[in-house]
């Protein structure tokens, strides 16, 4: 039986209608597509889900819809992070009532806490809930890095069970795998670094690309879990252009444009996110065509 929060978790985009409202039917449809493709858990309301521009009511409704659609088949790991510890605790409690299985919690951003501040933030959050928490370390967006000793300290808290390591620093990722307990889950936050991380003890990915190609991401990660790195590398080499082009501009602009081109959703963003520039769209479309994704979309 699979250990929860290992494998492929999809950092789900949030679909909107042309009028800018939450597209509940598309949330349900995209969730079902992910589960049918074999992903191991879902992560709504994160960076890729345009969390900063969602209302609390929308966040809760997204969780409710996905919990209903999953019906126990996969965990729903809701995005609950921010720069106000009290607010993080509040929304997490509401998400728990909505059926969330656990939380993906980005480090406090903008106010740049110290390492002790980071530890106390996550400790207060962990003390407020019995559900598992995944620390989300993405210093390129937040301005703070969870240093390895701090993460090792957090890993001692019973319900801090994992980290999404999106520092982009391969040496740090290696040090994390070396420093944390063997039962602590280390996940990549960068699709292209999934295999390198798994080679040194990582347990999978919270993925952007699995929004577009869930089955391929599952095939790559499950091959690595079997230690069949030849098969995993073959998948990686084929899909690397897509994993890379998803970050030609700020996430989630490229992936939402790609999914619209695949017929999966309306290309609608909430400011300050906008549609990619023309040159980026041409590059994204070229990658989609090369992979045959414009012809194989499931609507």
Task: Characterise this structure.
By secondary structure, the chain is of the alpha/beta class. 45% of the residues lie in helices and 12% in strands. It is built from 13 helices and eight strands. Helix 1 (24-36) packs parallel to helix 2 (56-70), helix 4 (115-127) packs parallel to helix 6 and helix 9 runs antiparallel to helix 10. The chain is globular and about 50 Å long. It starts with 6 loop residues before the first strand and ends with a helix. The mean pLDDT is 97.
Report the average pLDDT across residues. 97
* Radius of gyration (Å): 18 Å
The fraction of residues assigned to DSSP E strands is: 5-15%
What is the overall shape?
Answer: globular
Task: Write the topology of this structure.
Layout: E1 7-11, H1 24-36, E2 41-43, H2 56-70, E3 77-79, H3 85-97, E4 102-106, H4 115-127, E5 133-137, H5 139-142, H6 148-154, E6 160-165, H7 170-179, E7 185-188, H8 194-199, E8 204-207, H9 214-225, H10 229-245, H11 253-261, H12 278-290, H13 293-296
Parallel strand pairs: 1-2, 1-8, 3-4, 4-5, 5-6, 6-7
Helix pairs in contact: 1-2, 3-4, 4-6, 6-7, 9-10, 11-12
Spell out the key features of this protein.
three-stranded parallel beta sheet; 299 residues; alpha/beta; 8 strands; five-stranded parallel beta sheet
Task: Explain briefly what this protein structure is.
45% of the residues lie in helices and 12% in strands. The protein is built from 13 helices and eight strands. The strands form two sheets. The chain has a five-stranded parallel beta sheet with strand order 3-4-5-6-7. It has a three-stranded parallel beta sheet with strand order 2-1-8.
